[in-house]
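Late entry, evening session. Most of the bench is empty. Finally got around to the prediction I had been postponing all week. Sequence below, unchanged from the version circulated by S.P.
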Amino acid sequence: MGGLAGHMSHVHEDLKLKLVDIFEIMNGVVSGEIKSTEKVDGQNIMFKVDPDGTAKFSRNKGDISRGGRTYQKMINDFNERGSPVVAMIYGDGGEAIQKGIDNLPDSVITEVFLDPEMPEFYINSEIIHEKKPNIIVYDANYIVLHNAMTFADSSKTLEEMNQKFDLLVDNLNGTMVQLNNGTTWKIVGPQSLPSPREYVEDKSGFDEEIENIKSSLLKSFMDEGLTDQNTIGDFAQTVLQDKVLPQMGVQDPEAAELLCNFLLNGGNGKEIRQSLSEKVSIETLRLITMSKNKSQQRKLVGSAIGPINTGLHRFATLILNNMKSVIAKNPDLAAGVMRNAVMQHAQIRQALQTTIVDPKKLEDNLLKLDRQIALLGDLDRLNSSIEGIVFKTRFGTYKFTGPFAAANQI
């Protein structure tokens, strides 16, 4: 989702998960014991409702601190900045939400938004605009309500907050509204999906592929001297200390351990640079510990857990490949558009070779393209019409994005 809603983790990003936990998640998602909802590719927006029934919208912390903006103010602000398309998206989406709020009983507005014990109560939502180009073609206008959040101290529990969200969904789910420009919008809550197995014809072949992915993940752990009781963090630490950092010239084991802990857990970079100045080159120390290099530091950790990421991406691509979007008006069309987009990889390669002069930059981009194509598997079988799924487990809330993530990168 991003923005105020924060980053929702992929499974491989949770370093606390043990491999056995990952297998539990995989089994639960496939069987349907872990319920999934459709993750949509739209524009995120938060909204609350003032006592006079006016919806106020926020896209960042500045909006929150100022009490939010009306949809009309968003239109004016974005038009003044020379962004008419953005003004249209948030203006139309905001108007649809306001009209939905106008249809609510006063008692529901009071219960959900005006509880003095839960101030600054916002609804996290997504605007799906038929005129906004996406890899997933929805061909319809939707407001999708995701969940509730509060940006102030509250005396109430998460369960009570969820109850307020459920009450709002009960009253808004399926509401159709017509905007002043004549377009029709539908407001819905989280869209539940059947288990991935229900979309598969060859269930035995599907199950065999799942087991092959699990075996590959287990082998990756065992190759590093680990078991299924070790965490992703343990795996990352082992690979960083034994392979990644030595390849960068960090030969001292104690220095490698200290730098590894910094990459995984953070710390005082200046103190580390001072303490290791005689053991590690200053260039390497700066790369690993300076805040301006955070993106490269994330890449180092990402490279260490690459086999886990690849295995889980194979799993996500497999389970999502035949799933049908609930939001898209024509799921088969949406799947076809995604498939046709990634089929253009030869033209993309040629464009890169034509436009990028720097040999190193060209090589990096071509390698990235090849990685994403490899993650998609058999392109002729690509049949996904959804961005991904969101699901809650006893370990936390995660997402799988499968083919969409690779297609989006391409």
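Two things to note before I forget:
The first strand starts at residue 36 and ends at 39.
The mean pLDDT is 88.
Will write this up properly tomorrow.
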